[in-house]
Amino acid sequence: MSEPLEYSRKSKNDHPPARYEGYKSTVHRSPQRKPIKIEHTLTEVTGPLFKNEKIDAGESDLSIVDGQEAQGQRIYVSGKVLDEDGKPVPNTLIEIWQCNAAGRYKHAVDQHPAPLDPNFTGKGRIVSNEKGEYKFTTIKPGAYPWGNHYNAWRPAHIHFSLFGPAFATRLITQMYFPDDPLFAFDPIFNSISDEAVRKRMISKFDLDTTEPDFALSFKFDFVLRGREATPFEGQD
Amino acid sequence: MSKLGITASQTVGPFLTIALKADGQEYIVPETVEGALKLSGRVYDGEGQVVPDAVIEIWQANIFGKYDHPEDTSDFEIINDFSGFGRSCTDKDGHFFFITLKPGRVPGRGNTLQAPHVSVNVFARGMLKQQVTRIYFSDEVKANTEDSVLNSIDDDSARNTLIAQRKEGNDGILEYTFDIHLQGKMETVFFDV
Ligand SMILES: [Fe+2]
Question: Who is most buried in A17, A149, A181, A220, counting CB within 10 A?
Answer without folding.
Answer: A220
